[in-house]
Design brief:
START-like_dom_sf; alpha+beta; ASHA1/2-like_C; seven-stranded antiparallel sheet; Alpha-D-Glucose-1,6-Bisphosphate, Chain A, domain 4; 4 helices; globular
Length: about 150
């Protein structure tokens, strides 16, 4: 069996956990750090989550998945899959899991984002390398969330 492949990054944000949480689930805010995509969901376990953006004047679903579990203000887990990638079948076994965890400490929030397990999905090594992006992983998005909330 292959070694598990997860990308995990954390950042400390000078904002309370409710503000960080809002940045994770509010479509107007996700658009500011997730490549112009709005996260559209009812945020209930089992419900669909779509990351929608606009390309050439047309609405596009760039990533889809489902909410796995949610503890508002503390933890969110959902699956992700690129419906535009014809090289993979859209089955649960090819969906990755993303977990956000928030922890307040001394008036700040530590936000951790983890994605994986790349070792268990189709094209896992390639997908891992794409996310890892030379060692960056989720860092660019976390830095954008931090900048948005601290400005």
């Amino acid at each position: 069996m292959d070694q598990p492949l997860f990308v995990t990054n954390s950042i400390t944000i000078n904002a309370p956990a409710p503000a960080v949480w809002d940045a994770l689930v509010n479509p107007e805010k996700t658009k500011q750090y997730m490549f112009g995509c709005e996260a559209i969901s009812t945020w209930q376990p089992g419900d669909e989550l779509l990351w929608k953006g606009v390309a050439d004047g047309q609405e596009v679903v760039y990533v889809k998945g489902n909410v796995v579990s949610i503890d508002p203000g503390k933890r969110l887990e959902y699956t992700t899959f690129d419906p535009n990638d014809a090289s993979m079948e859209d089955v649960a076994e090819n969906h990755l899991h993303v977990i956000y965890e928030l922890r307040e400490e001394n008036g700040q929030t530590i936000l951790t984002a983890s994605q994986g397990d790349f070792a268990t999905v189709a094209r896992g090594k390639d997908r891992y390398e794409e996310v890892f992006n030379g060692g960056l992983g989720w860092t660019p998005m976390l830095e954008k969330i931090k900048a948005m909330l601290e400005s």
